[in-house]
Amino acid sequence: MLPRHILRVDQFSRGDLLQLLAHSAEMRRVVAAGGDKRLDGKILATLFFEPSTRTRLSFESSMLRLGGNVISSESAEHTSSAVKGESIEDTIRIVEAYADAIAIRHPLAGAAETAASVASVPILNAGDGPREHPTQALLDLYTIYDELGRIDDLTVALVGDLRFGRAPRSLAMLLTRTENARVLLVAPPGIEMSGDVLAYMETHGVAWEQLHDLEEALPRADVIYMTRVQKERFPSVESYRRVSGSYRLGSEHMKLLGENAIVMHPLPRVDEIDTLVDADPRAAYFRQARNGVYIRMALLDLLLGPRLLTA
Ligand code: NCD
């Protein structure tokens, strides 16, 4: 049974996850068949206080492909009443009168929880500052399942900004729902994975190791998960420059990567993956972005679909 609000990955049991993966595969077939109308009459509000291309548009596309409607506040940090000083709570109290679910992205860690604390409609966390990005982690795991045919017995290398990157944080925690996972953490000094996530992995049986060389991780990994250094979360340009460009995956690296391994990236990329890598069949990141639609359709259907009305 899915939680009422999608706020963090720790809300999902292994059973929920397996149900969601299967439902996403069904959603893929729905898209292939031209979509359907199961969310006819429902409205999703997307409330984005930070930049986004994939997350907002794939949420909106998901809703439309299921016959629902969308209202959107893009660049809400400039255009919503937050500019006038309205609190998250008050904004939610208003928007819930206009929509049946709200997907929110906000720079503050915990913003989605704040929204959920007053909301009478489901809240979907589309990224809360440097903390969590649960729907991204779900689509990442769906991608692994789709590409490799399994979610267990995986070695996943998380590379780049593991301190401020909410996508690798959420994925590391979601991997605790798989069996026999091993996580290789490859980050520049100062932006390593935070202690809370390391402790969470440890108590939930995920083996992790910290490495400094990408070359060391490549031959061991089933998944290389590259990430962008999160420039907007650094206190100064100098502190960003000290670590940006630390890891760049190029064609020469692909020789070290296993034949059946894949390269993922939540995107957008800056310079972490050379565009020459794109043509390699193991480059899964554009397929990964496409999978965002299936996962978000599955979530919206499970949260808003007719089966809940009859339950
Ligand atoms: C990520 C995010 O916003 O956290 N992007 C995304 O949602 N696909 C990663 C990033 O911005 O680097």
By DSSP (H or I, 4+ residues per run), the number of helices equals: 13
Radius of gyration: 19 Å
- In helices, the fraction of residues equals 25-40%
Mean pLDDT across residues: 96
- Helix-strand pattern, N to C? HEHEHHEHEHEHEHEHEHHEHH
CATH superfamily of the largest domain: Aspartate/ornithine carbamoyltransferase
Read across the widest sheet, the strand sequence of neighbours is 7-6-5-8-9
The count of β-strands is 9
CATH class of the largest domain: Alpha Beta
Total count of domains: 2
Gross morphology: globular
**Class by alpha and beta content:** alpha/beta
Ligands, ions, cofactors: N-carbamoyl-L-aspartate
The amount of beta strand, in percent, is 5-15%
**Cα end-to-end separation:** 12 Å
CATH architecture of the largest domain: 3-Layer(aba) Sandwich
Poorly predicted segments: none
Kindly describe this structure:
The chain has 311 residues and is an alpha/beta fold. It has 2 domains: 9-132 and 292-304, Rossmann fold (3-Layer(aba) Sandwich); 134-289, Rossmann fold. Helices cover 40% and strands 14% of the residues. The chain has 13 helices and 9 strands. The strands form 2 sheets. Strands 7-6-5-8-9 form a 5-stranded parallel sheet. Strands 2-1-3-4 form a 4-stranded parallel sheet, sandwiched between helices. Helix 1 (14-32) packs across helix 6 (134-148), helix 2 (54-65) packs across helix 12 and helix 4 packs across helix 5. 47% of the residues are buried. The mean pLDDT is 96. The site of N-carbamoyl-L-aspartate has 11 residues, from helix 2 and helix 7. N-carbamoyl-L-aspartate (NCD) binds at residues 54-55, 127, 133, 136, 166-167, 228, 230, 266-267.
